[in-house]
Amino acid sequence: MTTRIGGDVVAESLAALGADIVFGLPGIHALGAWEGLRRAGVRTLVSRTEFSAAMTADGYARTTGRAAPLLLSTGPGALNSLTGLMEAASSHSPVVAIVSQIPRDLVGRRRGYLHELDDQLAIFRPVVKWVGRAQTADAIPDMLAEAYRHALAAPSGPVVLEIPVDVLTGDASSVQVGSLDGTPPAGPLPQADALTRAAAIVSDARQPVIWAGGGVLRSAAWEELVRLAEQLDAPVVTTYMGRGAIPADHPLSVGSGNDEGAVADLLESADVILAVGTELGAETTRQYAFRPQGTIVQIDADPTRFGATYPVVPVHADARLALAALAELLPARPTADGATRAAAARSRIAEGLAKMGRDVELDLLTTIDHAVPRSGVRSYDMTILGYWAAAHQSAPDPRRFLYPLGSGTLGYAWPAALGASIGNPGTPVLAVVGDGGFCYGWAELAVAQQYGINVALLIVDDGTYGILREYQLAAYGHTHEVDLVQPDLVALATSVGVPARTTTPETLADDLSWALDTDGPAVIVLRRRLVAAEVTA
Ligand SMILES: Cc1ncc(C[n+]2csc(CCOP(=O)(O)OP(=O)(O)O)c2C)c(N)n1
Ligand SMILES: [Mg+2]
User: 395 FRET partner, CA 20 to 30 A, in 168, 172, 404, 439?
Assistant: First the structure.
């Protein structure tokens, strides 16, 4: 019973790499690893589906910047995680998936073994950053360390290490786990000639603007970003995924209303745009309608981004290293009109919002803003209030806004909020989901209750896939197959012991403070039809 097995090596390696928790869901082929985790005393959190487990791991990774181990079983269990791993890949979350495999001598032989897939890694390969297979227990420590380094190296992202069941359960008494290093080398380091060229362009700029994406948060470059913005006196626009890169009340902060006319004009009239840690994707560029008049200097850790949509002057580098190096090279510009330009854009957006007549939606954002401190996590799903928040709520602290964009993955926010709470003990966490998105993960209510996770959940129940309903009405003049039965969500939550209540826009402030003060999970249900924001001119 006490023979040392491959699963012990997995657990000891994870502990040596600094893992304080392992996410996942057990299956027969992975039981050796779960037994190893038990013996080594490594904390675990078991989700109710691998879809949710991957997103819980992502929420932990995105808010902490640490790698999140995710332990899954062969075949159906492993593949259930693909949606979450796709979101982690597009959001660059360092999730380290460890998936079991059928016995080594049966792989690919099509003898009808339980959970058999001809080539399991081939399914993950197009989704994640790196895949590997440990063929012996001996190989596990180094391969796990390698998996960590691949996951964490900029641009970070998910990886998959496959370990066959006979390796996990087989004798490993001779395998020693020494100290392991899962930290990748710093980088990519900016090249001197690229920096010099970028610095020359930026220092000549009369009306520069900085466009900051999620890469700034991942590389922990927010202080360097603000320092450079002040040095250049440049307004800062953040993408949805870059929210929090500059404090919301900083005079140079414009916000993240990337679809707004005011933001488009500010960016398009800039003579130099310093884009950092953003892929300049469709959601950032008004579906590629963005037409810059000036030069784009782009800092990115992924060289394949350069020129994908816009001609740029590239700086292939980690955001923090490049911003710090540029600050050294650039003279301070005499304070010009940066704060004035930022303030003008902000007030034009505010005027547009005021004219829209969507007071209910705006008041909900304000109420949430007051209830959840800047240091608290707000995890928004692909839901109408989430779209409002991404563009118009004031930004919280760095790595405190969770949003699956990424890939637009419905069902992310609630399981991700659980991981965020686990990774940030004592931090208030609020998830905001629609009724449709909640259905993907409502079983996680039981998980939140079972582990006593401190998380508040606001469900906006409009009885429909609300945003699709809006799109259908606009495009086709009627709706089809978007309306949903409205379950008693309060009863659903209380059935697993989670305290729950209904709310209204008027009582939401009190109900949010009740939910956030509740020890363990608490649910608030707002039955209300909301309307998405129009874009102001
Ligand atoms: C995994 C996944 N499946 C489907 C979609 C398409 N989709 C986007 S929003 C949406 C409806 C969301 O409904 P709900 O959660 O109730 O939010 P609401 O729009 O009503 O605010 C759907 C089905 C998606 N983005 N992701
Ligand atoms: Mg809905």
Answer: 439
Residue 211 vs residues 188, 217, 240, 282, 450: alpha-carbon distances, Å:
20, 13, 11, 14, 42
Distances (CA, A) of 207 to 48, 196, 250, 260, 322: 52, 20, 18, 19, 21
Give the pLDDT confidence score for residue 364 in this predicted structure: 98
Tell me if 468 CB under 6 Å of ligand 1. yes
Give the span between the Cα atoms of 472 and 24, in whole angstroms.
Answer: 37
Q: Does the model's pTM come out above 0.70?
A: yes
Cβ of 458 less than 6 Å from ligand 1: no
| pLDDT at site 5 | 98
Residues across the chain? 537
Question: What pLDDT is stored for residue 536 in this prediction?
Answer: 67
pLDDT of res. 437: 98
- Check pocket membership of 411 for ligand 1, CB cut-off 6 A: yes
Confidence at residue 1, expressed as pLDDT on a 0 to 100 scale: 56
Report the nearest atom of ligand 1 relative to the CA of 484. Answer: 16
Q: Evaluate: CB of 87 within 6 angstroms of ligand 1.
A: no
For 475, residues 6+ apart whose C-beta sits below 8 A from its C-beta are none
Cβ–ligand 1 contact at 406 (below 6 Å): no
Nearest CA owner, ligand 1 atom 13: 465
Alpha-carbon gap, residue 490 to 296, rounded angstroms: 50
Distance 400 CA to ligand 1 centre (A): 22
DSSP, res 278: -
Edge-to-edge order in the sheet of strand 208-212: 253-255, 236-238, 208-212, 272-276, 295-300, 313-316
What would the two tokens of residue 484 be? Answer: 């949903």
Residues of the chain with pLDDT under 70: 1, 536-537
Ligand 1 atom 4 nearest Cα: 410
Q: What CA–CA distance (Å, rounded) separates 218 from 161?
A: 23
Structure tokens at 436: 């449709």
